[in-house]
Write a structure and sequence with these properties.
The chain is mainly α. It is built from four helices and no strands. Helix 1 packs antiparallel against helix 3 (49-106) and helix 3 (49-106) packs antiparallel against helix 4. GO terms for molecular function: ABC-type transporter activity; ATP binding; ATPase-coupled lipid transmembrane transporter activity.
């Protein structure tokens, strides 16, 4: 069971970093798309659609790579913990059977009832860990999103520098 905790600790660290990177790139894509859409007519006038598309494709490709890494790590959690739980169950059953058979001939050891109780305990101990690992994907995504939100909230407030007045003066009868 200790193996489950150790492996889940290392995988969760990798997964958390990957989800944070994924959220960061998602924010870059959102900002870029918003910037392009707000300046759509300017982009159209200067005919730089191919540059815009190329940059967007690079950002989305980076996002795809990071998402793949993040979901690979988080997808490993449940099967790994489930299989390690089964391995623990099998090892308790095998070693318990050996101790029970050896003890029966020597007069000391486990009874079959005690062995069954230990195997059931082993199985019931691993199931909640597997369930937690199953929902860890959502937990790690929520933590990465919360970190982004809190970093935005921690930004200093913009100061109001007052208003500016632009005077419209005709110059050679040309008015803008």
């Amino acid at each position: 069971m200790l193996i489950i905790f150790i492996t889940s600790f290392f995988i969760s660290r990798k997964s958390k970093k990957s989800f944070a990177k994924e959220r960061e790139i998602n924010a870059k894509i959102s900002g870029y798309v918003e910037e392009i859409l707000s300046g759509f007519s300017t982009n159209k006038i200067f005919n730089n659609a191919s540059e815009v598309i190329d940059k967007h494709n690079k950002l989305t490709e980076e996002y795809r790579k990071r998402s793949k890494i993040a979901y690979t790590y988080s997808g490993i959690f449940f099967p790994l913990s489930f299989n390690l739980g089964l391995l623990g169950y099998a090892s308790v059953a095998v070693f318990g059977a050996i101790i029970t058979l050896k003890g029966r001939y020597e007069g000391v050891g486990l009874t079959i009832g005690t062995l069954i109780a230990f195997t059931q305990f082993s199985k019931s101990f691993a199931n909640p860990i597997g369930t937690i690992m199953l929902s860890s994907n959502d937990i790690l995504r929520a933590l990465a999103g919360a970190k982004r939100i809190f970093s935005i909230m921690d930004q200093p407030e913009e100061k109001d520098l007052g208003s500016y007045y632009i005077e419209n003066k005709p110059n050679n009868h040309k008015v803008w």
